[in-house]
Design brief:
Helices cover about 10% and strands about 30% of the residues. With about 270 residues, the chain is mainly β. The protein folds into three domains: about 50 residues, Roll (Membrane-bound Lytic Murein Transglycosylase D, Chain A); about 50 residues, Roll (Membrane-bound Lytic Murein Transglycosylase D, Chain A); about 120 residues, Immunoglobulin-like (Sandwich), CATH 2.60.40. A hairpin with a 7-residue loop joins strand 11 and strand 12. The longest helix has 8 residues.
């Protein structure tokens, strides 16, 4: 990669969006070195700078780097610096670290909780990180229709789905959904998949996606239920989610999520 010196830039750089701050490219800078220096990721920098060729950076060029200007500086965080991962929200982080959403909001002035980006750095108030909050067992979560995919007035019978603990194992999940239309109603699909998104303790892979092929039971005028069971490497943790998606069993391709919900403890 070569970096070219330009003494004049007639066009002004646009302001950076919320959750990021401007960074001026120096000699020798790359997306990787900037990410390492400022505590973010290459993918996050690329997402905030569409159209920027990382192999043709110029000295003096302005980039938007997520997390660097969205909250207190590292020296003013009286708690733990945390890098946003996929699926994080202030609510799930508050539950995981044993603090309140209001406390996280107050510790991160200027951060829009509705526009968190992967790689963004925020402050979790408190003295030290806590262990992830396990969901009390048994768990029996209800998944509801995704209205962006299934409008309320659509002539497609979409019911609900449940995720339940199997026996006394905290790592065995069973998913059951009914009623659901023939999967072909959504395209080239012949089955349904239950998709679990589980938080792990591996920083290199903070979430693991587990797909369960659901099998239909019932026939004729009976209510058809699609269900399946799996055992995972991870117990249920606050912030885990589940979805039902149409599935092509030949290619493995999946459609948009029809039902979605957080894993929660049983109520009542």
């Amino acid at each position: 990669m070569s970096i070219h010196n330009h003494s004049l830039y007639p066009e002004a750089d646009p302001p950076c969006p919320a959750g990021s701050a401007a960074h001026t490219v120096r000699a020798g800078d790359t997306f990787y070195s900037i990410a390492q220096r400022l505590g973010t990721t290459v993918a996050a920098i690329a997402a905030f700078n569409p159209g920027v060729n990382p192999n043709a950076l110029r000295v003096g060029q302005s980039l938007c780097v997520p997390g660097t200007g969205a909250g207190p500086s590292p020296g003013t965080c009286s708690g733990t610096r945390y890098t946003i991962r996929s699926g994080d929200t202030f609510y799930t982080l508050a539950a995981r670290y044993g603090v309140t959403v209001q406390a996280i909001t107050a510790a991160n002035p200027g951060v829009n909780p509705s526009r968190l980006t992967v790689g963004q750095t925020i402050c979790i108030p408190g003295t030290a990180p806590q262990q992830p909050a396990l969901i009390p067992t048994p768990f029996c979560s209800l998944l509801r229709p995704v209205l962006a995919v299934i409008p309320p007035d659509a002539d497609i019978p979409i019911g609900s789905a449940t995720v339940r603990q199997v026996a006394m194992s905290t790592r065995a999940y069973t998913i059951a959904a009914a009623p659901l239309p023939n999967p072909s109603a959504f395209g080239d699909y012949d089955s349904y998949a239950g998709v679990l998104s589980l938080i792990t303790d591996n920083p290199a892979a903070p979430r693991e996606t587990v797909t369960i092929r659901l099998v239909a039971s019932g026939f004729g005028d009976q209510l058809i239920t699609w269900s399946g069971t799996t055992i995972t490497a991870w117990p249920p943790i606050v912030g885990d989610t589940a979805e039902i998606r149409p599935l092509n069993t030949g290619s493995g391709s999946q459609g948009s999520a029809l039902l979605h919900g957080d894993l929660l403890p049983c109520q009542g």
